[in-house]
Amino acid sequence: MPRTAVPNPEQVPADSKPTLDAFTKNIGFTPNMLATFALSPIAFNSWATLRGSLSKALDLKTRESISLAVSEVNGCNYCLAVHTFGAKHAKMSADEIILARKGHASDPKRDAVVQFARKVIETRGKVSDADVKAVRDAGYTDANVMEIVALVAMYSLTNFFNNVFDPEKDYPTVEPAGSI
């Protein structure tokens, strides 16, 4: 059950409105999570800036795979629904989506990233030297490793936000992890 009401457009703070309007225009509707998040212009606009910057990191399928792995570990059903929808639009197959939720990918290079991202969230960043070596050996630079960590943190932020406020789902729900 939602812990805060989704604001109507008149209730969105003026400092959040331009950012929220841009998302609405891009997506075609205003997701409940974004409308709720917009109640704090500081948090919302900071997240949106981070998201915009990190949209240049790695490729879309890799970012969506990371989002699915992190959201699965964090138990965020809202984000799993959003990112499953996004992954389908990124031309990921149902099998690829399931693999990502389990912390893997069919592509060996992407698999190294997804495994590393999952280890980052599971260990709270206390990964081993071997974990870092594995992602480097797959062809990723230290800058890429930093981007992966930043993506894990960004997806965790929205996971935690949604787990705390539990906005009403407005994307198709996904099967529980135990059934995949």
UniProtKB/TrEMBL annotation:
Q: A Pfam family for this UniProt protein?
A: CMD
User: Where in the numbering of this chain does the Carboxymuconolactone decarboxylase-like domain appear?
Assistant: 46-106
Q: Which UniProt keywords apply?
A: Oxidoreductase, Peroxidase
Top-rank taxon: Bacteria
Keyword Nucleotide-binding among UniProt keywords = no
Q: Oxidoreductase as a keyword?
A: yes
Q: Which GO terms describe its molecular function?
A: peroxiredoxin activity
Family annotation (NCBIfam families): ahpD_dom, peroxid_rel
Q: Which PANTHER family match?
A: CMD DOMAIN-CONTAINING PROTEIN, SI:CH211-175M2.5
Question: What's the protein here called?
Answer: Alkylhydroperoxidase
Organism name: Bradyrhizobium macuxiense
